[in-house]
From TrEMBL:
<dbReference type="InterPro" id="IPR027417">
    <property type="entry name" value="P-loop_NTPase"/>
</dbReference>
<dbReference type="InterPro" id="IPR014001">
    <property type="entry name" value="Helicase_ATP-bd"/>
</dbReference>
<protein>
    <recommendedName>
        <fullName>RNA helicase</fullName>
        <ecNumber>3.6.4.13</ecNumber>
    </recommendedName>
</protein>
<keyword id="KW-0378">Hydrolase</keyword>
<dbReference type="GO" id="GO:0016787">
    <property type="term" value="F:hydrolase activity"/>
</dbReference>
<dbReference type="GO" id="GO:0003724">
    <property type="term" value="F:RNA helicase activity"/>
</dbReference>
<feature type="compositionally biased region" description="Polar residues">
    <location>
        <begin position="22"/>
        <end position="31"/>
    </location>
</feature>
<dbReference type="InterPro" id="IPR011545">
    <property type="entry name" value="DEAD/DEAH_box_helicase_dom"/>
</dbReference>
<dbReference type="GO" id="GO:0003725">
    <property type="term" value="F:double-stranded RNA binding"/>
</dbReference>
<feature type="region of interest" description="Disordered">
    <location>
        <begin position="1"/>
        <end position="35"/>
    </location>
</feature>
<dbReference type="GO" id="GO:0005730">
    <property type="term" value="C:nucleolus"/>
</dbReference>
<dbReference type="Pfam" id="PF00270">
    <property type="entry name" value="DEAD"/>
</dbReference>
<keyword id="KW-0547">Nucleotide-binding</keyword>
<keyword id="KW-0347">Helicase</keyword>
<dbReference type="GO" id="GO:1990904">
    <property type="term" value="C:ribonucleoprotein complex"/>
</dbReference>
<dbReference type="Pfam" id="PF07717">
    <property type="entry name" value="OB_NTP_bind"/>
</dbReference>
<dbReference type="InterPro" id="IPR001650">
    <property type="entry name" value="Helicase_C-like"/>
</dbReference>
Amino acid sequence: MARQINFSATAVTSTEDKPIANGTSPQTHITKASKRSKIDYRAQALALRPQRERLPIYSARAAIVREIRKHPTVVIVGETGSGKTTQIPQYLLEAGFSQYGHTAIAVTQPRRVAATSIAKRVAEEVGTQLGARVGYTIRFEDCSSDKTQIKFCTDGLLLREILADPLLTKYSVVILDEAHERTLRTDILLGMLKDIQRTRAAQSANGSAKEGSAGALKIVVMSATLDAERFSEYFDNAPVLYVAGRQFPVTTYFTTTPQSDYLDSAHLTVLQIHTETPSTSGDILVFLSGQEDIENVERLLRESAAHFSPGVPQLLLCPIFAALPPSQQARVFEPPPEFTRKVVLATNIAETSLTITGIRHVVDAGVHKVRGFDPRVGESLLVEPISKSSARQRTGRAGREAAGFCYRLYTEADFAQLPEDSVPEIKRCHLAMVMLQLKAAGVSNVLAFDFMDRPSKRALKHALLELYALDALDDKGELTALGRWMSEFPLEPAYSKVIYASQQAGCTREVIDIVSLLSVDTLFYIPADKRDESNAAQLAFRSSDGDHLTYLNLLRAYTQANADPTWCQEHFVNRRNMRHVLDVRQQLNRLCTRLGMDINKSCGSDLDAVLKCFLSGFFHNCALLQPDGSYRSLSGSQTVHIHPASALFGKKVPAIFYDQLVFTNRLHARAVSAADPFWIAQASPKLYGRLASSVSS
Ligand code: CDP
Ligand code: MG
């Protein structure tokens, strides 16, 4: 081993609770069910019942149902793994809160992976086919029917449903799960649900509700952290129920020195754990910032594992992150084969929203990816240190089933410097999309919206200005016809504007392709030791106009190669993400067709039309070449560097536009293309009128 990471043992998390009795596993039922050609859902559910009854939340079942019956809103706090997400919807179903074919219980999750995997588990527990009585709906994928009684969905998806059904009449109960995460969309939902609840209560009280309408709306807010008082206050002092959890002691280690490369440290720490403890001592869960990190560590571990001496158990590497296709999620939850140790590589998705059994060792890189927004630089993705509260949640994952170990890849002194909690997303990210949704849902004065945490006036104004510049709002701040059209798309307004522009420009097919391609983090694999090789392979797709058209070339070549795995490997193409791209494209095509667009309109080889369309949405993300060879952003006069992975890296063109800024050690523009400065001026006369006249004169 090249390097050894030194950890010092420091702390043991306390635990009051006793370990749960190891009940007998109901294997016999499962075997019986799987022997039949048809799945026996009832037997499956029966088999899972003892597990359900062993969960800490089970004893609180009656009290939970009683409180929810009594109060319009209830806040429930319970340790991760206590059974909130899987059990409470079922308790409400069993207690008659949903009427078959009439009303349903919605459960929102901040992440799609959580929504789909938990729906699958709950369908098994209820004893129904996924998509029937229990289902899920996430962006670009609907696995539910009008008979669905428990529906898991992302918070963003429920927000979209409000546009079509402003009083959410389909639902008798909405459960806002993982509310402690305070995602932008959860926060907006909180405000909208509060309003919907009030309106429905008034309708029920004065009898103005139509015959057979949904009646009052119950709201359940669920959180894994203790600071639930804020939710209670926000909902007029709603009662807070605490569910005791079970936690075994976890020995926590810090590194003795700061780590310069947390990916390498994570890789080495996993190897250290694996070689120093028997694989029967439990699986390993590693927290990293995002898909790129995960795929890098996955590769490092795969290479190391190839050189294990005989007799060392193998590693089963299971990545899990938001964009992972559902077909690949299931592996994380399955037990590893014999003489194999499971290593789960996860983002903060595994912090509170997913419970993975068998974990005894946690490796915490101490970072997560957050969306940041600064009016001068626009929206950016940042890898930032986590909060103390997140660090504790991550540690807790090691002590779910027995005493465990947590290896923090940072020093104790660094831990002391971490903020207690993360800042709610609404305070730090771009608001244009949700402002557009609020407007479309009939909230005309968004400045007066009942926010639990109010974003700054500056951020709100900036979002409204962007919507105005995109022609989604008129000069009185009212939604335009275009704005309403744009709100149909589950996309940032800039993208829906680009799609709109593609109709006139006659390049809808190319634009939808590229928008789909931009929906994933990376399209290529770039192994550190094969950088030159992968660069050479990518040259085949490279367009001198930049990344947008390069990506388009890649998609065309991928389609021509019939998505062949060998072809992908030879060209360092990320297959996992390409499959996601195709899914997104299919959904966008469907939506555009429904809106009456001709999705086959193609511009052939006149690809300038495509770039101009992108500028009609991304005129905010432009930079001009300076005499000293650097690029300076038009909107904030910041120096912007072209990302090394870009087709335009090292090139000097008069102007560029980009999809996104990523802040690592400096501001990097990702997905960059060349633009004619005159096109930029044309794209938004409202913003760059002066530039237009100076360029044309
Ligand atoms: O929401 P909360 O963190 O309180 O717990 P949960 O997600 O409802 O999970 C309760 C239990 O269900 C976990 O401890 C797991 O043992 C089990 N579970 C499972 O086995 N497989 C899943 N896909 C989800 C949950
Ligand atoms: Mg949960």
